[in-house]
Specification:
alpha+beta; 3-stranded antiparallel sheet
């Protein structure tokens, strides 16, 4: 199924704002972390979603996914007073948002990466920014898939058969 471009953000009462933007073209299926429901992924010949991980385990194959042909690439931006090493940790923590939504994630066929940037202006801890970065990244992944429209014979979320 098609991936797409998604965004999400959060603003705390003290002024801290964290935003995520992500382009999703993952090998793995996309699951809503709130209920575990698969919302996008590999489909059978009737257009119904298949459970990818058990399929791979049962058949002991991954349909010859092409190494590096897929990727999920994103960025976390915030207005926290953070230095380069702190934002590196935030980017690492934001990968939890991918792991909450993409199954499997970081395969040999994916080039998944998240960048992070800070404009400064608001004091905050790395933990607070990183925790929220993972949350907004997960929401952005869902937004990317739910925003995808069918094109070039590849089905989008809106056209998924029940």
């Amino acid at each position: 199924m098609k991936g797409g471009l998604g965004t999400a953000s959060v603003k705390l009462p003290g002024g801290l704002t964290i935003g995520a933007m992500v382009v999703v073209n993952a090998v793995g299926e996309i699951r809503d972390p709130k209920n575990g429901k698969t919302i996008a992924g590999a489909c059978d010949e009737n257009g119904h979603l298949i459970d990818l991980t058990p399929y791979i385990i049962k058949n002991n194959k991954d349909n010859n996914f092409i190494q590096g042909a897929n990727t999920t690439i994103g960025i976390i931006c915030c207005n926290a007073n953070m230095n380069k090493s702190q934002m590196k940790k935030v980017a690492q923590m934001a990968h939890d948002g991918l792991a909450r939504t993409i199954y499997p994630v970081h395969t040999m066929s994916d080039g998944d990466i998240i960048f992070a940037a800070a404009t400064g202006g608001v004091d905050s801890s790395v933990n607070t920014v990183g925790i929220l970065a993972a949350e907004v990244m997960a929401v952005a992944v869902l937004d990317a898939v739910k925003s995808a429209k069918s094109k070039f014979g590849v089905r989008g979320y809106a056209d998924l058969a029940d």
